[in-house]
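Lab manual, section 2.4: Encoding a predicted structure.

Procedure: take the sequence of the chain (256 residues), apply the prediction step described in section 2.3, and record the output as structure tokens. A sample record is shown.
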Amino acid sequence: MRLHRPARRLARVVAAGGVVKMVTIARDGHQWWASFNVRIAVPAAARPTRRQQDAGMVGVDLGVAVIAATSEPVITANGNARGLPAHCQSAGWRGARDQVARLSGLVAQRRASSQHLLTKQLVTQFAHVALEDLRVKNMTRSARGTQDAPGRNVAAKAGLNRAILDVGFGEIRRQIEYKAERHGVQVTAVNPAYTSQTCHRCGHVDRKSRRTRSVFECTRCGHATHADIGAAHNIKHRALDTTTNQERGLTGRAGA
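Recorded output:
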């Protein structure tokens, strides 16, 4: 192998008592990777900082065009470029195959980088993260149907399924949960029903309030906001209600 840069992180882990158990060599596109599996002692969970405690809870709405919108409000757009340059389609089969592998690897790296950056920001800036309890397997179920009862808009649903899997809702939640445990941050997953159709100001639920993918304008009170930001506020409100009810239950049992 050609060690193009010193493995400083691995050296620090080993110096701190880590034991290298195995190494996996893998190819991703046109690049090769060496992944070291190291056994280390799990550090004690940290406590939220004063800044995190002051920031309190944040609601996070995951999506496709917008990977994440928070109740702060902050929007993280989807930067994972799909599709190939035109010259890839006219090249020879082997050349096109190599181009696809290389670009797929770059997209995967960009996706992983975006996920880690987003999840680290959430667990280091807030003391409590609220998410939707999404059932990704159900969300990405095929609309093809059966021969006797064929589905509708099968191609469009297949495209949406690919987009959902490309963003990686399940992986984002997994990263938030394990990083939150390390930083002593609480995570609450709430019912996702109608979060994008509910006005977070007056509580009115109407699918017509969702004028476009990004525009929400309440049909009752007229409140207008970015649809994903509004959904993030609703997620936060539901998590606050859940946490309050749990605390009341604990207080009631303690009093009894």
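Check your result against the sample. The helical segments are 8-15, 50-55, 86-90, 93-125, 136-139, 154-167, 169-183, 227-255.
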